[in-house]
Structures are given as structure tokens and as C-alpha cells.
Amino acid sequence: MATVRNDLLDRIRDLERQVREIAGRSQTRPPLDQIKNGDVRISEGGQLVVVPPDKSFATFTAGQWPDGSFGTVLRRMDGSFALTVEGEAEDRGTVRLWSRDTAERDRILVMDDKHSPRHLGRPWMPLQLHPTADQRTTDTAWAPAWVGISPVHNAVAHLQLTTLAEAGGRVRVRMRVEGGEAEVVDEWEVPAGKWTAHTVERPLHRSTFLGEVAIQVEHLSAKRRKPIETRLLSAYARNTVRATEAPEPPAGREGDTGKPDPTLPVEADKEEHQDVEAGAGKRDRAKS
Q: Which of 68, 263, 27, 273 is nearest to 150 (CA)?
């Protein structure tokens, strides 16, 4: 007859007790597909992906991109982009909100600026400019035609103007960002007797988001008693389209009062107060 160890029954009872404990814990703890407390951490690469049934795309993707950087993509149920945080290092984490219009799903509605991290990329915001009594003048000295102060949202100012000078003349645009000095950013000749259009595009150097920019359009006539008139066709700020358009950073000078520069008078009232997923295509990249 085989020998039975004296403690075998005790071992069996211990095993039974442990099984009961495990079974009891499985009833009190959340199942493996739920988390009631604590963090979920994915480290050393990888992605968290949600793929709907019978779909070939993920509606949610967060994690590492092929180049080693990290990003997030939210898609709608039809596969179009909804919200993206760029995962490619060259985009510096650009955030984009995409249109759900079925005819223009490639359209970016809201984004920060790819090349100027402190500015809004889209939407493009208007710059307020107001006509003065000298919008039409015969003065041969510089006279203000349009003036205004606006909060800074986007990185690049865009002005479109047209001028008629009976005997010819000149037009120039001066700008001053908050805390800086007024400077002439563009100046051009106007021939006699015909409307002359001109577009000014200028990065808002040393500007801060929601700081202020003062803009003044000035003109002069080439001859006394010969009128010159300048009309403003559009005035807004836009996102950068290339890295060379990125504005210079603010000076950050100590003790800056932010008071208006007396050399740049402004007659207007002062307001208080621009490849998402790896392998998915790089839509609207040229526009951003």
C-alpha cells in the first residue's frame, strides 16, 4: 500500500481556500475590459487604436508615429478627419479641426500656426482700419488715409489697397506692435491718372498673441492742389505658409509700458479686451 504524506490533506485544504479567494475576488474586482481607478500607460512606443466593426480605419488613434514622435487622430464614422494633433516632429504638434462638409472634407476650420507657435493659424481674423479726413487729399506731405489698432491673432498681416493720384504720388504703410517702435513696412510709387492696386503682406514681427498692432496707411501727392485718394479693399491677418514667414519673437524688454508710440497717431477707437495620421495622406498640408 502506498504511503500517504501526513500533510497532504492540509495542502488540499489550503488549495481549496486559495481557489475560493480567487473566485471571490473575480466577483468583486472589475473585469479585464474595465478600469475603475488608476492610469493606463503605453510606454516605449506603440499606439492605442479604436477600430469600428467592419471598418478599415481607426476612429481614434493615439501614440507613436513612424518617425518616433507622438500624436492623436480622431476620425468620424465615415473615415474623414475630425480633430488631429500632428505626430510628425516637423509640425510641432499642430492642432487641426477639420470640416465635416461632404464636399470639402479637406478643409481645415481651426488650427494653430505651424511655423509660429504663439499665433492662431485659422480662422483668419480681420484687422480694423478706418478712413480719415485725409483719405482724399492734395497734401504733398505724408498724410494718414487709414488708421486702426487691432488685437493680434494671426502671424501675417495682409492689406490690399488701391490709389488714384491725378499727378502721381506715393503710398506707404507703417506698423507698430505693442511695446515696439513704428516702422515703414512697405512704400510704393503711384503713377498719374490711373487706379493702382498694391498688396502688402508682412509678418507681425515681435508680436504676441492678443497683443496689439497699430497700422497706418499714408499717402502724398506729387504736386500741390492735385488730389490723391487711397481706398482699402481688404485688411486681415493670416497664417504662415512657409517657415520664412514666421514672425520674429517678442523682444521681452523689462519695464515696457505698452503705451502707444507718439510718432504713430491713431484716430480710431482702441478695442479692449493659423499627414495627420501615418499612411492616411497629408491633406491640406500646402494650405497650413
A: 273
pLDDT in tens, 160-189: 999 999 999 999 999 999 888 999 999 999
Strand 95-98 to 81-85 pairing: antiparallel
Q: Which of 88, 209, 78, 218 is nearest to 154 (CA)?
A: 209
Around 30, how many Cα atoms within 13 Å sit in the side-chain half-sphere? 7
Instruction: Give the three-class secondary structure for 106.
Output: coil
Statement: the pTM of the whole predicted model exceeds 0.85: no
**Cα maximum dimension of the chain:** 133
- 147: which 3 cell numbers? 488708421
| Contact status, residue 191 vs residue 150, Cβ threshold 8 Å | no
DSSP letter (8 states) at residue 20 = H
Three-state DSSP class for residue 4: coil
